[in-house]
Amino acid sequence: MGSSVITARAAASFEPVGRSVASARSFVRDTLQGWGFSDIVDDAVVLTSELVTNAVVHAGTSADLLCLRSDEGVRIEVADRYPEREIPLQGSPVSMGSPDREGGRGLQLCAALAGHWGVDYTPTHKTVWFQLDLPERPVGTRAAGPSLPAHLLPLADTRVRVAVVQIDRTGSVTAWNEDAEELFGYSAEQVTGKPLTDFAAWPHTPGTGTGIADALQLSRWEGSYGIRGAHGRVIPVYASHLRVRDTDGEPSTVCLLVRDHERAVLQTPLRGPASDKSGTSEGQSTDPFEMFIGSPAPDDLDGLLQRTVERARDMLDGDSAFLLLATDDETELEVRASTGLPSARQRFARVPVEAGPGRYGSARMPAVHEDLTAVPGAVPLLNSTGMRSVVTVPLKVEGRLTGSLGVAAEAPGRYSNEEALRLQFAADRIALAVESARLGELERLRRGSLSFLVEASDLLAGTLDRDQTLALMAQMTVPTLATWCAVYTIADQASEPYLSYVLHEDEELIDGIKSLLSKIAPPDPVPTPGARVWSAPAEVAHQAALRTSMRSLGLSGSPTHPVTPGIGPTLATASAVGGETVVLPLVARNRVIGMLTLGKPTDEHFRQEILELAEDLSRRAALALDNARLYSERTAISQSLQRSLLPPELPTIDGVEVEVIYRAAGEGNEVGGDFYDLFPISDGAYGFAIGDVCGTGPNAAAVTGLARHALRLLAREGLSGPAVLERLNSAILDEGARSRFLTLLYGEMRPQDDGSAELKVVCAGHPLPLRLRQDGTVEPAAEPQPLLGVIEDLELYEQTVTLDPGDVLLCVTDGVTERREGPRMLGDDGLADVLTTCTGLTAGAVAARIMRAVERFASEPPSDDMAILAMRVPGLHTD
């Protein structure tokens, strides 16, 4: 950071694995939020994600991350151990490609988002760094009045009392200080828990619907009203309201009140004209923006727009006012602020720029409507609101339409061209500030959306489980984009959409929404991109709630019944889904595989930016969901094929205990090459086999199936063991390029009358079978011979082994003997050592002990299939 003083640092290292990218993002986010730099967190997370991805994924090395804080900003360095990987220099003519592609965006983002960035090389490391400057935070005086002589100062009592009253979200008093007790005569105990409207005398203006409840919902409000004191008289007060939120996230309003003649204590002063040498104010310049909006101006866009419509309404003595902002293509206007109108229903609604007949239909010019009943639909926002006359003016910046400001009244003929000129003058003063705030908001939304999509893509790419993918889709949507969501899936083109997942930010409402949606027809699977409104859930919920309410009141023709507990969930569900609902298609590989449904509890419309972000998410989620489906289908096919290559059940052999344990490696989506079999031949003889085909997958499965079925067929033809394997070897070689070599242990077993068992064994390239005697000695029960599927002319021979009572024959595949932990391997000797501890155990106990020892030999999961076949001849006299 040059000569800047480093005031804090944080460092971490990340291994070259995919999950390190998410860990690095969390580390940077936690570090910067801990330093109090939440303004730049999103940019830092996006850049860190790209650079760490380059290091651990593309370069394949570990990444060292260093965060440095100074008085100038934050510098973040990402170093990898691949200095030969060249980085294009700034100003280089080499194209970095499109920013929309999946990879290679790190340097483009550094250039776009960071104040400074660069690359440092050493013989062993390459470090890419970027610096984010902190936004300027204005300090000092925000507004000030002139210096006045003492006799011109406003008159106040000997002691100025400021009543501090706190109101909760329901409008009830929660706090009442000593000055409030002195001013109005009530103690805190008398007013706590009671609505403020019980004491406030609100100066209602005829024709307006604004009251104390509306004022308490505004983020900031100043004005005059009255408080009815304990003596019964109304005390005029001047109030300043501020909407706040406590540490639990609950909103409340803090009201500061003074006597009306002491309003100078609280009233936000307007910036007056500067005095000149003559001492007069005539002709002196003022700040029209501050004169209209007031000082200090709101810092956020919503606050600025709300202050604008309130001042515009007051300036023209209207009953309502509204402000719309233009979309990027200027073809539509989006409602962003209103007063005196049902704002919850209208907010973020869109109306076309050209609407209605004649010149009054254009939002690009000032317009005066003396009576809206004469020109129906001229101002769609005011339909069914009772407003009769309206004046609208455009907000323009450099000749480009950026919005529209309107004031309306319930009486006709209230406005003329003079009011239009006054409103246009105010709109011209504020247009640039509104556009600047709007662009700032769009930039923050864009950066936040980019960070959101980066994390969403990382999460969706981290799973191939269908149910987990559905849950991730819903959890990323609620509550970031919507209050509730539902995911429908479509199995194939002939299937109807199926309700697969429902989520609401209040878990108690999930079952009610799921029940309601299951009773109505799903939305049509239209492949057209973009969100479309779906009104069915709100309509059905309202109808069900109405029927339940009427039944509870005895209005449906049936006998009157008391209100049942069932009315609660029904009404709660109606409230939860009673707002706007939109549907986005989930399209993957040119096929609609489902729909993502988003909903709100109120009629407030979804913002277009939110819908565009949801559309981006739906594209990524659809591909992830389809990948999970394909993976599940492949896994199911592999598991079904694997089951078909193993015997359905083992026969029961008199005088011999048999136990088999089979463990397939991997994630279940590959067919293993290990197999086993035990089957009757004839005349009390049984054939047994355990083998391992080279490799996995379909080709290995073909050889496995050929071997298992050929063994049964040839053995039952009465051929000896060597003849069976020689013919199997020929069959494998006949497969040509698809053939795989095969290691196989095959034998025939005949239980004897004296309690022993006679075995004839051929071991073709397979791990040798081990014989455990009653005295604990272990020895190989066969000799090694050539494996199958390599050479044509095999000369195999069989060996005879007799298992005495109490003896065990253990047969395994090489996944057991080749179990590794670093440089160590279990091997034949290690297996024999484990087997020596199994004297006196049943065949099942022997197999279980061997498998337990193999699993405990290494901490990592097995990398190869494992099969264990244990056969034991029990003693003649066993307890």
From TrEMBL:
Pfam families: GAF, GAF_3, HATPase_c_2, PAS, SpoIIE. Transmembrane segments: none annotated. Residues 164-194 form the PAS domain. Keywords: Hydrolase. InterPro entries: Bact_Sigma-Reg (IPR052016), GAF (IPR003018), GAF-like_dom_sf (IPR029016), HATPase_C_sf (IPR036890), HATPase_dom (IPR003594), PAS (IPR000014), PAS-like_dom_sf (IPR035965), PAS_fold (IPR013767). Residues 277-287 have a biased composition (Polar residues). Residues 269-288 are annotated as: Disordered. PANTHER family: STAGE II SPORULATION PROTEIN E, STAGE II SPORULATION PROTEIN E-RELATED. NCBIfam families: sensory_box. This is SpoIIE family protein phosphatase. It comes from Streptomyces atrovirens.
